Amino acid sequence: MGKISRLLCFLTLTDNRLMATITVLNGPNLNLLGIREPGLYGNQTLADIKHNLEQKAAELNHQLNFYQNNAEYQIVELIHEAYQAHVDFIIINPAAFTHTSVAIRDALLATKIPFIEVHLSNVHAREPFRKHSYFSDIAKGVICGLGATGYELALLAAHQILAERH
Ligand code: DQA
Question: Within 10 A of 103 (CB to CB), how many other CB atoms are there?
Answer without folding.
Answer: 14
